[in-house]
User: Which sequence fits this backbone?
DNA sequence: TCCATACAATACCAAATGGTATCATGTTAA
DNA sequence: TTAACATGATACCATTTGGTATTGTATGGA
């Protein structure tokens, strides 16, 4: 099914969620830490985190009584690939993007 | 204001709209032509086209009694730039994308 | 043990979204 | 002129979405 790309674009459609990704790009954060940056309840932030997880843009792992949320590249790859599809109709060279993605497995942490 | 990026991501969040972009990547099309590919009314397709236009992903120009819709790169640039922001957290080299975007003005049709 | 902490889950609500139906407007060809 | 054509605009409806409030559950320190 093609539901993954839908989940990713859906996740990116909300400004709060894009902002969360920016925050998580600095470091892994618990739900409470993420929530501290927004004027809404933790429950609301948690919902956004779930949608980001469904879009494969973040991952969450339980550590004791905390849950650490981390930025993940899968969803971003999906978006990059999608943009790349249009490179031929766009007079900009994006081929490098495609090849960079395919090389991902070879790079080191 | 930062409403442009919101309009673009909002426009991409719907599968019908992403499909419309795929169709328009083949050629400019009237509303009727676009509608022929979908099982919904022309009015519904027209609404999608307006949202795509707000996201700077297409442009529409009236030609007599027809309206031709064409793929536009502005919104795609927005998305590409956004993805590029995360390249540093992602062990893939996307710098080429950024420079390609900045060179756009120099390329020919 | 026992309580404060950090999160999970659910019910509920208002607003935005995706769709149809309907009517109005400008254009082309006879 | 006039009728069919292609689109534009608006009202309306069901569903989804983004949020709060509330309640439940597991963890860790005193």
Assistant:
């Amino acid at each position: 099914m093609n539901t993954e790309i839908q989940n990713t674009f859906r996740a990116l459609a909300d400004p709060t969620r894009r902002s969360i990704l920016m925050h998580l790009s600095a470091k892994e954060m618990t739900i409470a830490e993420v929530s501290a940056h927004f004027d809404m309840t933790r429950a609301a932030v948690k919902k956004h985190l779930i949608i980001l997880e469904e879009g494969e843009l973040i991952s969450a792992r339980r550590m004791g009584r905390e849950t650490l949320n981390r930025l993940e590249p899968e969803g971003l790859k999906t978006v990059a690939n999608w943009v790349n599809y249009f490179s031929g109709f766009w007079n900009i060279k994006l081929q490098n993007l495609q090849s960079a993605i395919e090389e991902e497995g070879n790079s080191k942490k």
Q: What stands out?
A: The beta strands of chain A are 29-30, 58-63, 66-71. Confidence is low (pLDDT under 50) at residues 91-109 of chain A. The radius of gyration of chain A is 16 Å. Helices of chain A lie at 3-12, 15-26, 31-35, 42-54, 74-85, 95-102.
